[in-house]
Predict the 3D structure of the following.
Amino acid sequence: MTDNAERTERRLERVILELLERRGPTATICPSDAARAAYAGHGDGWRALMEPTRRAARRLVAAGEVEITQAGRPVNPQQAHGPIRIRRTR
């Protein structure tokens, strides 16, 4: 991973945690919320940040900071396919 890519993903980790901090303790966010918040441009360029956001969320799961959920239940981030949500670890 390049230095720039690593900086972007670390920034995405911070954005995920900041968004969750602003919401209630049981609230969830969509990875697109973090991608949009981190994207500095206009238009739909934030879409390029979706996979880096999902990787950042998986690292936060490994660190015990967040859970990735589907249908309201925690899932193994490596096995999650389709839409996911992110929430603080309970």
